[in-house]
Amino acid sequence: MPRAAAPLTRQAEDYLKAIHALERVGAAAGTSDIAARLGIAAASVSGMLRRLARLGLVSVERYKGARLTPTGRAEALLLIRRHRVIETYLVERLGFVGDEVHEEAERLEHAASDALIARMADALGHPTLDPHGAPIPAARTAAHKAARTSARTAAR
């Protein structure tokens, strides 16, 4: 019987979000670009990219950089959704303002359960924009959840 898919680490989640952001402004995400975005040494990026590739979340082409796979992109969008729903909840329900909302959401997005995010979105009336005006990605589907579990299990 296959093991249940292990959750991604906070660092792995941050890599997926960084690669997604870099892909949106250009081609593949280079090692130095990822390192700069995350504020880490470029030498430490390669190991995480190999791990994410084994999980089926990124594809890496030597000297060209990393790209999210469809499963990796879905995972990144889920993380972005979590962050933006939390930001919206913090602003609209708890009165957070300015810079404090981003940092608080950054901490909470890694700990909040899917059920909590769903309830927050429901309580907010399923917003489509975060407090900064950025779009909130749609909730993931059951098909995405199955694809995510399948990709992680296959990578073991």
SSE layout:
Layout: H1 10-25, H2 31-38, H3 45-54, E1 58-61, E2 65-68, H4 70-94, H5 98-108, H6 114-123, H7 142-154
Antiparallel strand pairs: 1-2
Helix pairs in contact: 1-2, 1-4, 4-5, 4-6, 4-7
Could you explain how this protein is built, in words?
The chain is mainly alpha-helical. It has two domains: 10-68, Arc Repressor Mutant, subunit A; 77-141, Winged helix-like DNA-binding domain superfamily/Winged helix DNA-binding domain (Arc Repressor Mutant, subunit A), CATH 1.10.10. The chain has seven helices and two strands, in the order H-H-H-E-E-H-H-H-H. It has helices spanning 10-25, 31-38, 45-54, 70-94, 98-108, 114-123, 142-154, and strands at residues 58-61, 65-68. The chain has a two-stranded antiparallel ribbon with strand order 1-2. Helix 1 (10-25) packs across helix 2, helix 4 (70-94) packs across helix 5 (98-108) and helix 4 (70-94) packs across helix 6 (114-123). Residues 152-156 have low confidence and may be disordered.
Features:
156 residues, mainly alpha, Arc Repressor Mutant, subunit A, 2 domains, two-stranded antiparallel ribbon, 7 helices, 60% helix
Strand order of the largest sheet: 1-2
Which segments are poorly predicted (pLDDT under 50) over 5 or more consecutive residues? Answer: 152-156
Secondary structure category: mainly alpha
Name given to the CATH architecture of the largest domain: Orthogonal Bundle
Rg to the nearest angstrom?
16 Å
Estimate the helix proportion, in percent.
Answer: 55-70%
Q: Mean of the pLDDT scores?
A: 87
User: Would you state the CATH class of the largest domain?
Assistant: Mainly Alpha
